[in-house]
Amino acid sequence: MSESLRLPIRLALLGLVTVIIQAAAVSQISIFGISADLTVLVVMSVGLLAGSIAGSIMGFATGLLVDMVLVQTLGVTSLLFLVIGYWSGRLRELRDPSHGLVPMALGAAATAFAGIGMAVIQFLLGVDAPVSWLLLEQIFIAVLVNTLLALPVYALVRRVIEPALPADPRRRRRRAYTTGGLSPLQRPSQRLGPMTRSGSR
Amino acid sequence: MHSKQVRRRRAVVAALVAIALILLTAYFGESPSSPLHTLQRGIVEVFSPVQEGASKVLTPFKDVANFFSDTFKAKSQVGQLRKQVAKLQAQLSQAQFAASQNVQLRHQVGLDNSVGLAAYKPVASNVISRDPTLWYATVEIDKGSDDGIHRGDPVTADGALVGDITTVDPTVSFVTLITDHTMAVAAQVNDTSGDTGVLVPAVGNPNQLQLQYLPTSAPVQTGQQVVTVGFKSGPLQDLYPPGIPIGQVASVGNSLANNGEVPVTPAADLRHFTIVQVLTAPHAGTARAQTPTGGKTG
To answer: Per the count of CB atoms within 10 A, which of A46, A120, A152, A189 is most buried?
Structure first.
């Protein structure tokens, strides 16, 4: 398989499987009266791991698939997920966050954005049914549930797409720090091991 | 190099946003027979066997998760349900007496007696996918036009009306639930005078319905059952057969006296049902549908 096609193929399969599992199973499991939304978390994770372009394309495609499969108004979920994928990717490109809890915080933000964004778009489209404190309460519970699921989903997405990601110098540098290879904070003697006066080890 | 990357990124995002907005605008303004809707139905048709398989494979996981969820919910409902059982037992004896009288009277006036659901040719079907959001109250089921299902057929679950068929393909269909903002059902309260109104989703609560256009002096009480009217007036005929339970009156407050409205709690658990019955011949039994001219039509 061509090197350049590995990532798109993995992302396409990931999106497809996520939407099917979400529609066929996860949406039918009620936790405190709401269902978790894995699609948002997967899009966020892809953005965070693969950057803004991959994140936005993944968001758009996953959203479109959700709208298609669930017979919803086309374009609504695509628009929201596109923004989520793009900004998750931009966060990675601008800040390169390495803290282990970043996916949780970003998962919460992405879920809140999707819930509120959906409400705003539905208002603009003239839908007036579920508008209330109950809606806010349900968005809040959805954010909590998705926050708890964000880390396992992120880990799973990383496992799926990381082998296909292009080599990133920042990632290499970070890995080198953790293995003690290139850290400028270490003295040469610590990096290279014990040396004899004659220069031979 | 860097500016080229920036330009590329912006171009991709701008193109995707533009496509999403074009799709949204085009889809929203189009009729259900338009190319975009047809494409959507085609993709649903392709995906439905996969979803059906996934739904079956993942059933044990769903069952385990729902077991815990239902256990917590059931514990909180025990006291309330015990009171309800006591009340319903008293009502049952009255209802049985009324039913026996009803049978005799039907024979006397020569009306069709087939008001049970079996008369409407129900087709049992499994839910294979469900919308996770509050905004689209739809579920997908694994039966379609090949099984005799038509657009507009009423759908019941847990013995109560849950919605109707809005999209039909040969092997799958989509049910729009009664809590969807597009739905309205002519309904009757089983009170002493059988007041009728129109049941619509309650604004501000996606799990609640609102029975509107009741007489402000209607003798409605909390807990009374709300059923479909199934009216027929000249060429006009209700989509739903008469007498199908929809829910119970949740409370009676000032909104009845002021606006002729009461909140109604759906009888079926709209987020949990997994099996539905589609009534493929909803106008087979029209006993109560033949309302006298000038009568209430809901």
So the answer is: A46
Cβ pair A51, A89 in contact under 8 A? yes
Instruction: Check CB contact under 8 Å for A129 and B203.
Output: yes
Residue B138's nearest CA partner among A189, A121, A118, A70 is A70
Hey, are the CB atoms on B135 and A122 less than 8 Å from each other?
Answer: yes
Q: Do A131 and B61 touch (CB under 8 A)?
A: no
How far apart are alpha carbons A140 and A147 in whole angstroms?
Answer: 10
pLDDT score at A179? 53
Average pLDDT, chain A: 81
pLDDT tens-digit readout, B113-161: 545 677 788 898 888 888 767 666 788 898 888 999 998 899 998 888 9
Top-ranked range on mean pLDDT: pick from A81-85, A170-174, B53-57, B210-214: A81-85
Q: How far apart are CA B170 and CA A166, in angstroms?
A: 44
What is the residue type of B119? Answer: A
In chain A, positions 19-48, which contact chain B (CB-CB < 8 Å)?
20-31, 33, 35-37
Q: Nearest CA of chain B to the CA of A56: how many Å?
A: 7
B67 at interface of A, judged by CB pairs closer than 8 A: no
Closest CA of chain B from A26, distance in Å? 7
Reported ipTM: 0.76
Question: Searching chain A, which residue's CA lies closest to the CA of residue B128?
Answer: A24
Q: What does each C-alpha distance from B284 to A87, B152, B237, B288 come to in angstroms? A: 56, 15, 12, 12
Q: Report yes or no: B36 at the A interface, CB cutoff 8 Å.
A: yes
pLDDT bin (cut points 50, 70, 90) of residue B108 is low
The answer to whether B174 faces chain A, any CB pair under 8 Å, is yes
DSSP state of B133: S
Residues A57, B16 contacting (CB under 8 angstroms): yes
* Residue A178 burial by Cβ neighbours in a 10 Å radius (0-12, 13-18, 19+): exposed
Three-class DSSP category at B50: helix
Please give the Cα distance from A164 to A5 (Å, whole number): 9
